[in-house]
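In this supplementary section we document a worked example of the pipeline. Step one takes a protein sequence of length 129 as its only input; no multiple sequence alignment statistics are reported here. Step two produces a three-dimensional model, which step three serialises into structure tokens for compact storage. The input and output of this example are shown verbatim.
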Amino acid sequence: MNVRLDKWLWAARFYKTRKLATEAVQGGHVHIIEQSKRIRVKPSRLLRVGDMLVITKGLYKFTVEVVSLSDKRGSASIAQQLYAETADSIAQREMISLQRKAQNVMAPKHRPDKRERAKIIRFKNKFAE
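The serialised model returned by step three reads:
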């Protein structure tokens, strides 16, 4: 059975629509690893079991091996059976997630109101003189 790359990405639930999967592949966000080289491919590329893919979605990179082929979108549990993510990929994504959570702890929870803005302005003016 041969399956196009964009159909497989959609069936494996990496993208909500096939059009988004096609645009991601055309945009260079999906690569196939062959002989330890990342190769940019077209959406019509036929996948085989055992192919290694690097999928970039925002800050996260998924390195997955194609375990099974499907051109039909099923439930999330079925979609997870189509690929196996490498341990390095999982660890890297968890590390990025922890870093983002640490950055959010430092961010203010809300915008300052009128009184808080006045305090900030007074504080800044103390050091400006």
